[in-house]
Each structure stands twice: as C-alpha cells, then as structure tokens.
Amino acid sequence: MTTTQQESHQIQILRSCVSTPTVSVSKKTNNNDPQVQAFFIHLLRDCASNGSIQQGKALHGFLLKSNFIHENAEETIVLYNHLAHMYGKCSKIDYARRLFDQMPERNVFSWTVMVVGLTDNGFFLDGFKSFCQMQNHGVIPDKFAYTTVIQSCIGLESVELGKMVHAQTAKSEFSSHVFVNTSLLNMYAKLGYMEDAVRVFMSMNQHSQVTWNAMISGFASNDLNLEAYNWFLSMRSRGFGPNIYTFASVLKAIGKLGDVSKGREVHHHVIRSCLESNVVVGTALIDMYSKCGSFSEARSVFEKNFARYSDTNTPWNAMISGYSQGGYSEEALEIFKQMCLNSVYTDLFTYGSVLRACVDLKRLCCGREVHGRVVKINDNSRVLSVNNALIDVYGKCGCIEDATKVFERMEERDVVSWTTIITAYAHCSEEEKALDVFLQMREEENVRPNQFTYASVLVACASISLLELGCQVHSLVCKAGLGDDNCVEGALINMYAKCGSMVEAESVFMKIDSPDVVSWTAIIMGYAQHGFAENALQLFRKMEESGTKPNAITILCVLFACSHGGMVDQGLFYFHSMKERYGVAPEMEHYACVVDLLARVGRLDDAIAFINDMPIEPNEMVWQTLLAGCRVHGNVELGKIAAKKVISVRPEDSAAYVLLSNTYIDKGSLVDGLSLREVMKEKGVKKEPGVSTIVVGGRVHRFFAGDQRHPQKEYIYAKLEELRERMKEMGYMPDVSSGLQDYGMRGGGVVGLISL
C-alpha cells in the first residue's frame, strides 16, 4: 500500500469513527482496552510520520469527544504522549506544549517527547531546559532522553553542555550503551572535537555499523580526510560491511584528498556491494572522480548508471558541477543540454553550475538561454542564488545593462547580490557606477559589506587611480576587522600599486604575517608595472624561499617584469622551467609575454621562430604582440604577416590595422599608411577611441579622442593651444608621423592644471 493509499485509508477510518455517536462508542468499547489504544497509537504514529496535521487534529478531537482521554485517568498518559509527539512532528510545537501542560501525569516518555519536539523544531535551548526540568521533577532520563538532549547540544553548538550530559551518562546505567555512546561520539565529531570522539569510540565495549559511520563521517566533515579513509579500511578489517552512508562519507574525504588510487579502491568495494547504481553512492563517485581530476572515470560512472535516469537530477548535477569546476565548461553545457532533452528536473544547483560554465566561456547567448529557461520552466526566477549567478554572467560577459535589470528586479538582495553587481560594473569599466552602488549599499540599504565587496571596490578604485577614495576604503576595511583577510590584502596592494603609491603597497605587504600567493603576486606585479624589474624578481625569489607555490599569474608577472626590464635570458629561463620547477603549464598569455620579451629588444626573428615552435596554435594576442614589436622596430614585412594573422581571426579588430598603418608611416611610407586607414573605413572597422581620466575634487573626468562633451571644452582646448604655442617657442616639435594629433585625450592634463 502506498503512502497516499495509507492516508486515504486512515481518513476513512476517522470518518467512520466520527460518524458513530459517542454514546454508542462508549457503550460498545472499553476505553482502557489495550487493543483499542494500540489502534489509535498506530493512527497517531502514521499522522506523525506523514506530517498529516489535519488528520491528527481530527483524531485528537474524536478522542476527546469519545472520552478516550480525560483528566485524572492515568491510563491515558500513553495517548497524551503520542498526541504530543504527533504535534511536534507536524511542527505544531505550541499545540504540543499546551497538551503537555494539560497532562494529569507525566513519565519519562512525556518529557522526552517534549525535548524531541523542541529540538526538531529548532528550539534547542528550550529542549535542553526541558531535559533539566525533567530531572528537577524527579524523572530519571532514559537512553532516548539522553540521545535527544545530545542533539540539542549539537544544535546549540555547545560542547560544554555536551560534556555535562556526557558526565551524567557516565554515572548512569547507560555509560556503556551503544545507542547513547554513538550519539555522544557523533556530537563530538559534528562539533569538531574528534579526539573526544575517538576516546568515546575506544571506550565502547561493542560497535556497530552506525558507530563506524559516525566516526568516518566525523573525520570527513572535519577535513581529516586520510583518517576517514584509514578508518574505512579498519571498519572493513573488523568485519563491518559499509553501507551507502559509509561510502558517501569516505568518497567525500577522498575527493578532498585528490587521491584517485584510493578512490578506485573504494569504488571496487562499492561494486562488490552492488551499490554503484545507488543515487547517493553513484553521485558521490562522480563527485570524487571529478575532484580528483579523473573526468573520464566520472563520466563512465554517470553513463553506465544515470545517463538514462530521469527520476532524480542529483547525478546530473554532480557531473555538470564537476565539469564546470574542473574547467571543462563545454562538457558541462553538453551534459546540461542532454539533461534538458531527457526532461530531467533542473534546479538552482543545476543553474549555478551551468551559469558558472557560461561565465568561464564568456558565452552570453548560452547565459540568456538559461535565463529564459529559469523564467519559463522553473519557479527559480526569484531564487537569490540564481539571480546572483545571472548578474555574474551578464557582468562578466560585458552586458552590464542586463546585469542591472536582473539586479533591479530582485525582490530580495543579500551582500552577494550587491557585491556581484559592484564587481560587474568594475569589470565593464563603469567604476564610478560601482562606487555609487557601494555607497548606496552602505548608506541607503544598510547592508554590511564583506571582504569580497571591499576587494571589488578596491579594484574599481585602482582602475581609475582613485587613491584618496582607496585610502578611505582601507580605513573602512580596518574598522570592519577585515584588514588581515587574504582577499582584501591582495586588493589593497594592487590598489596602492596601480595608484602609484608603491610605498603604501609595500607597507601593506610587510604587515602580512604569512602572505599567500595572491599577495605575493600583487606586490611583484606592482614593482613590475612601475619598472622596478630587479625588485620584482628579488621578491619572487623571496616568495620561493618562503615555500609559497607560484601560480600561472605569478609567473606571468615575472615574465612581464623581465620583458619590461630587458632581462631576456632570465625571462627565458623562467618560462622554460615553469612546468618542471613550478608545476605550471604555459598558457597563451605566457607565450605572448615571451614574444613581447624578444620583440622589445629587437629579436624579431627569434620571436617568429618561437611562435612557429609553439605546441599550441597561437591566437591573435600572440600575433598582435609581435605586430607591436614590428611597429617599434620598423619591420614592415614581418608586420604584414602578423597583421594578416590577426585580421584573419578578428577582422573587426582595429588595433592590427592601426599598428601596421603606423609602421608604414614610421618607415616613410605615408601613402601605404593612409591607404590602410582607407581600407579600415571601407570595411567598417572603427578604431576604439583612446581615453584618459583624471580625478579632481573626488570627481572623475574622462576624455576621449575628439571629445566635445566636457562642459569646459572651450577653455580646455584654448589652454591646450596656448601650451602648444609656448612649447613650440621653446623649440619642441611634436612627432606627427603617426597621423593627426588630437587634443581630446590631453584634456585631463589641462583640467588637472587649472584645478591647482
């Protein structure tokens, strides 16, 4: 009989009972008959397990009307207890309290029912107090009361209260009871006191599968992952067979260890236990293999057991999440597409992983499709985490208008929402808007920023060199007690460095007790950007000595320093040793940096030879870097080759045309240079206007080439002409070889001068 059929059957019984006159029931039945009581207890238990509050209330009313429970009847205490238990399980704890207060007499089960009800409904402190009141009334707790109050201690996250209960159990008859001791070691494990959990385990005279599971789960939850695996082996050697909960815990631990060989061994036990197709275990296997980087084995488990399984989405979500987090975003989208075709239910966890893949691929169209599905198919359009992910997708893909629309339509926003939209504005070069939203967040909405919020705001300050505001944000960070957060420290160093204050950047860095890779990278990049190549490399050597492992960005900063410092041999050494010495595989940016390293010093032949020897296909960034070197050193022929490569991939890219045109002009081929500009016009390729910024009085002034929008434009251009004439009188002759001169981008300098 299904659950629905059982409920229907119960309702029919209740209706028949209620339709029978009370007098006839009392005449025909003995209210103290154990069989009658057992029948009603059975119905109350079903109501409790199914959460059927209406049926429970109806049964309660019938028992009152039929005189089955009444005052001063000690025999009815069992019915009172089960009624209170039913109300607690149906989340009607106030009803349970009133019924408890009306009881003519209470036993240990009555008190335990109240402790259970209060704890299950989140009233942990009240549950613990009820346990204490029980003893004040002279009622001695039993094993169920002890295990229940231990759950209250877990809910309160109070190991001190837990130890008090432990001390009491040690003096009771339950000191060696498996049920109680398992609850105690579970409490210690969940509260992070694994040494105490081990002591309880070792003191037990006998163990069970549940006891072993509690220990393995405790080790895994406390990131003692190798211990979790070793205890799994011990469990097996002691003759206890693992179940789905054992496998779920140990596979989680192995995933954190990243040890695929251990995972394969556990997988072997899973197969022997015939549990590979179990949703919980199979999902744990997929997650473990993904975290160990063995995506082929994760996919094999998925395809074998769940690819045609549409009843639950958990394995699908695990596969999508594994691919997305592992950088296999195309594969994540492929699984999502298959999931939709198979009509598998998609939820907020699905969307979170899929949208992360869209961000990684900068796939705006895919993000829009997912957004449409969220709105049309699921009721997830109002879910906070989904909207936050959508803002992130639109922001990272450069569509700030859509990101703003999602943000403004949100009925509920949290600190993540605000941080994500601030980050989106900063990413889309709308730093002023990012700062305005930050002020609105603090002053109007009264939302407290976290470390990630401050980091995004500092990035915005750095992008437009707002040193004064950056200093103010630094003060806010310190007041919030977040000054020693790794995320904020790196952002502060970056902000001070980009604002030209290397003294402050170094001051922040020197105050860090144990700099992480982000902080080291930020200070190295700061020195490299300001031309202090030797300082940058010296810091990198100190980083190596500290034992901090550099990442791909750190190596890129080192190569950048070598390139701008003319240290070709050192740069080549670091590049060729990055895989073997630092375990970092070269990416396209590293190859482009080496091309820049060689091209800057005029070694263009070596640069093209390096490109030809690349193990991966060079993209437009590599060729554009070579083209920039050809422009500096006037190599027109090689410049043509590089420009052709860039234009073949990105025909709309104006930079290649402009660089080659300027190369022609620099070599005296003015006709060829201007001709190339005409080709740009014919193809509709527009040069992105240059921009300069200056901050005066807390206000950001932006100037574009040919700018006519500034309210002081007439005075600015007049001042520029005056300065040009004075410079000419002093013997200065401007370089006009690269085309027409434009005053627009110089407007910032004038605004700065006239504000003094």
UniProtKB/TrEMBL annotation:
Origin: domain of life: Eukaryota
KW Repeat (keyword) present: yes
Keywords of the record: Repeat
PPR repeat spans: 76-110, 208-242, 312-346, 414-449, 516-550
Molecular function terms from GO: RNA binding
One Pfam match: E_motif
InterPro entries: E2_motif, E_motif, PPR_At4g14850-like_plant, PPR_rpt, TPR-like_helical_dom_sf
GO BP terms: RNA modification
Alphabetical list of NCBIfam families matching this protein: PPR
This protein's name: Pentatricopeptide repeat-containing-like protein
Native organism: Cinnamomum micranthum f. kanehirae
